[in-house]
Design a protein that fits this description.
This protein is 24% helix and 30% strand. The chain contains 7 helices and 18 strands. The strands form 2 sheets. Strands 1, 2, 3, 4, 5, 6, 7, 8 and 18 form a 9-stranded mixed β-sheet that branches. Strands 9, 10, 11, 12, 13, 14, 15, 16 and 17 form a 9-stranded mixed β-sheet that branches. The protein starts with 8 loop residues before the first strand and ends with a strand.
Length: 356
């Protein structure tokens, strides 16, 4: 069946849980909406897209995703505007990145228009779940995993593509403390660092836990070969402001995930005439800027937190305190503008909001 002929069937849940939600206590990613999306890949094509009540799914013990890690995902958000309309932030970018991950992991692509339409329809059906509180949003988790029921090592021939929705509040309750990692590695050149593959995150848990045991929230990952160059911060891209210039590791390296939030920040700052450099960023350069006081700001950029200001950077036995939050004119301005843009308080001159 051609993609253009696919019709998304809908089975409505009988008892909505939306009125039983404690909207003042929303742990990130633990509360889910009434419905979910499911589509199967078999016989060389996608088929039977459906929206159904949120529920458990059956799986075979030999399912290949469990054994060989063919699993990818995305993260994006929907927002409620002041006029009551709902929008999704840059879903076309997530669709493109999802397919880049699929190609790297030997998985079938989901046509971009179909990817966006599946999200749009699911958000529309569960529109009452989009929070109407400052700093809150509806987190959207599209994901795909291999489902062949055998343990032979080869790309699966069957897959499930699913979408879950989860109302969320702020990801970080405070500025983050990070430690520059000089031993463990997130991704190596030629590996799957650019893909949003599940295994990348599983491999990061142990070193991240060690950092958390020493009172840091996250790690700043460095290159696998020499640990001389900055790559990412935890599950986010990282941006520094040094001598009035925004500096961030170049995404040309295949060890770095192409961040949609970071790209938005760069495009916004550039439109304001702010100097931006995307290039290799050495650990030595960062530490020197911290020592001599030219480091004005540092923050993580990602879907969950949008912009997470960094308070402390640890490196080996040293700990550096960054400028106070109220002095960070640029990052505060960027975050406030993006937050306002996503709910219609300022004009969306870039066309980033996709209305439901």
């Amino acid at each position: 069946m051609a993609i253009s002929e696919l019709t998304i069937s809908v089975e409505q849940c009988k008892d909505s849980a939306v009125n039983r939600v404690d909207w003042d206590n929303l742990p990130f990613g633990r509360v889910f909406t009434d419905h979910m999306f499911l589509m199967e890949y078999a016989d060389g094509h996608w088929q039977d897209p459906k929206i159904m009540p949120f529920q458990d799914i059956p799986m075979h013990p030999a399912m290949s995703a469990i054994h060989y890690g063919q699993s990818i995902f995305e993260g994006l958000k929907a927002y409620k505007h002041e006029d009551g309309r709902l929008s999704i932030f840059r879903p076309d970018m997530n669709a493109k990145r999802f397919n880049e991950s699929a190609i790297r992991m030997c998985m079938p692509e989901v046509p971009e228009a179909l990817f966006v339409e599946c999200i749009r329809k699911l958000v529309s059906i569960d529109s009452s779940w989009v929070p109407n509180k400052p700093g809150y949003s509806l987190y959207i988790r599209p994901f795909m995993f291999a489902t062949d029921a055998w343990v032979g090592i080869k790309p699966s021939e069957t897959y499930k593509f699913m979408i879950l929705l989860s109302p969320v509040g702020n990801y970080y309750a405070e500025p983050v403390r990070v430690k520059i990692e000089s031993y463990y590695t997130r991704a190596a050149q030629g590996g799957v660092g650019r893909a949003k593959a599940a295994g990348n995150y599983g491999a990061s848990l142990y070193p991240a836990k060690q950092a958390q045991d020493h009172n840091f929230h996250q790690l700043v990952w460095t290159d696998a070969k020499e640990h001389k160059y900055i790559e990412e911060s935890g599950t986010m891209n990282i941006v520094f402001q040094i001598n009035d210039t925004l500096i961030t590791p170049s995404e040309e390296q295949d060890t770095i995930l192409r961040g949609i939030t970071k790209r938005s920040i760069i495009e916004l700052a550039s439109s304001w005439g702010i100097a931006v450099e995307e290039r290799k960023v050495s650990v030595e350069e960062v530490i020197q800027a911290l020592r001599d006081g030219t480091m004005q700001d540092a923050f993580g950029a990602g879907t969950a937190a949008t912009l997470a200001q960094i308070d402390i950077i640890g490196y080996k036995e040293e700990v550096f305190k960054l400028p106070a939050m109220e002095k960070r004119t640029l990052s505060n301005r960027i975050k406030e503008h993006l937050d306002a843009l996503k709910i219609g308080k300022v004009e969306d001159t870039f066309g980033w909001n996709y209305f439901v």
